[in-house]
């Protein structure tokens, strides 16, 4: 049975695992400044990082949580996922492999 590339129905694993994974990846990109600040603080603080980096940790959690709880961000990630899935169903080539197959000589 061939799957319709344009089918918008989501399986539970897509709703509960794959789309949230995409949300985490994109949120990390968008919160990269907070991640860098927290990482730097941890490196500079050593064993005292739990105490010294509370402000940076709170800022990072706040940034990530804002994305995780934003319905518009969920929709954006869902549409991106559906687009990738549609392309995979049409071509049989996963997005990661498709990106690697671009010509390297320019």
UniProtKB/TrEMBL annotation:
Keyword Mitochondrion among record annotations: yes
Keywords assigned: Disulfide bond, Mitochondrion
Keyword match Nucleotidyltransferase: no
Compartment list: Mitochondrion
GO cellular component, one term: mitochondrion
Family membership: Belongs to the CMC family.
Name of this chain's protein: COX assembly mitochondrial protein
Native source organism of the sequence: Saimiri boliviensis boliviensis (Bolivian squirrel monkey)
